[in-house]
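Appendix C reproduces, verbatim, an entry submitted by the partner laboratory led by Prof. M.T., so that reviewers can inspect both the input and the predicted structure.
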Amino acid sequence: MDKINQIWETYRASWNNDDSVKRTDKLKEIMTEDFEYRDPNIELKGSEQLSDYMSQFQKEFVGASFVITDFQFHHDKSLSHWNMVNTENEVVGNGTDYAVYENGKLKQITGFFKQG
């Protein structure tokens, strides 16, 4: 379970990492080569596309970050509930991520949240 927690923390922190090269390298460490990501706004494949999406997020939501409020894992699947907070640590959004793992790496994430 410690490895899964480390993977998830790396993923969560990547949303705030503004160094695209380092962010992409970190994502490659925790994701399968055929990784897929989906949320209400987008579908993409691979760590580089996700890293680009994270850059767009940072430009749109300057200073926002994510706080995990609940994390559950079993049988290579996880469910994470989170809050998006602003620079004053006020909750400005929340959602849920469902993830699938393969050989100790993230294979797929599907995010659910209200579209703004």
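DSSP finds three helices and six strands in the chain. Additional entries are available on request from the coordinating office.
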